[in-house]
Specification:
The chain is an alpha/beta fold. 39% of the residues lie in helices and 24% in strands. It has 14 helices and 13 strands. A hairpin with a 2-residue loop joins strand 12 and strand 13 (301-306). Helix 9 (197-203) packs antiparallel against helix 14 (308-317). The longest helix has 18 residues, at 169-186. The N and C termini lie far apart (42 Å). GO terms for molecular function: ATP binding. Residues 2-237 form the ABC transporter domain. Keywords: ATP-binding, Nucleotide-binding, Transport. This is ABC transporter ATP-binding protein.
């Protein structure tokens, strides 16, 4: 868990980027920090790995003050993915991805095994790509390698600063999907900065919406959509998006283009729901029974399993059939 307590950051020119910010980012969850340009979201992220140092306040990771951890040690234990990726063009993909494990003096065999495993996870065949150079890869492929490099030393925390904003829409959507899938495997504490509300609603477990260095609202995507805390939040989300998502709550499950997870064991901890139930009713069952999946049934036939994540993805993409 990352805990920020009364964080204020004032730059030498007098600009107050952060103003008494207190927030918790839960362990193993993806927290999106979003807001307009200049709201302080990137400064907040950089304070976590001490690329920026707060003027006042404290930051703790796993109940340890980061001020008590040497900066180099702290940064080697936090993965960092940036918009421009930052791969070294004169190094192969293998050497780029091996940098942090080498700094931490991992054995070469362990490092290579880890990198090959991660390359497979992000959809890049290590036998094909490890010997290539960054300029031989597309932008989307380079960004995937950025993931691999950030995760190579198995950090518990991953910071992502607008990593998809420079990509074309198709590559961006593909990488959002892959991040969701990857997070299901790695279960890292991820802090993701973006200015794109659709992206935030699609990938986040928790959203922190900022304005003028303060937190305007914090909550799950569902909470922010259903109960905007202020007129600013409503405007930032967009009235059309709010109405689209609210109307989606009353759509029956069978009308959604969902990919049901039929391969799951029926004995998995879940609760049964009929496919004529609405999305709103499904969310209520998730909250009531605290289960990871719902079994969707059409009469006596088991259609498959759905999670809250698959429901939210469907809402974000507006995949409601006519």
């Amino acid at each position: 868990m990352i805990q920020l307590d009364q964080i204020t950051k004032v730059f030498p020119d007098g600009t107050k980027a952060l103003d008494d910010v207190s927030v918790e980012m839960p362990e193993g969850k993806l927290t999106v920090v979003i807001g307009p340009s200049g709201c302080g979201k990137t400064t907040l992220m950089k304070c976590i790995n001490q690329l920026e140092k707060p003027t006042s306040g404290t930051i703790s990771i796993h109940n340890q003050l980061i001020s008590s951890i040497p900066e180099v040690e702290l940064r080697r234990d936090i993965g960092y993915v940036i918009q421009r990726i930052g791969l070294f063009p004169h190094m192969t993909i293998e050497k780029n991805a091996s940098l942090v494990p080498q700094l931490k003096k991992w054995p070469k065999e362990k490092t290579l095994d880890r990198i090959r495993e991660l390359m497979q996870l992000v959809g890049l065949d290590p036998d094909i790509y490890l010997t290539r150079y960054p300029l031989e890869l597309s932008g989307g492929q380079q960004q995937r390698v950025g993931f691999v490099r950030a995760l190579a030393a198995d950090p518990s925390i991953l910071l992502m600063d607008e990593p998809f904003s420079a990509l074309d829409p198709i590559s961006r959507e593909q990488l959002q999907d892959e991040l969701i899938s990857l997070q299901q495997h790695i279960q890292k504490t991820i802090v993701f900065v973006t200015h794109d509300m659709d992206e935030a609603l699609k990938i986040a477990d928790q959203i922190i919406l900022m304005r003028d260095g303060k937190i305007e609202q914090m909550g799950t995507p569902e909470e922010i959509i259903q109960s905007p805390a202020s007129e600013f939040v409503t405007q930032f989300i967009g009235t059309e998006r709010l109405e689209r998502n609210r109307s989606w709550l009353d759509v029956p499950l069978h009308a959604l283009d969902l990919t049901y997870q039929k391969e799951l064991d029926p004995a998995i901890r879940s609760f049964r729901i009929v496919n004529t139930a609405t999305v709103r009713e499904a969310i209520a069952q998730f909250e009531k029974h605290q289960v990871p999946y719902l079994m969707v049934a059409n009469g006596n036939e088991l259609v498959g399993f759905i999670s809250q994540l698959t429901l939210l993805q469907s809402a974000t993409r507006s995949e409601v059939s006519a």
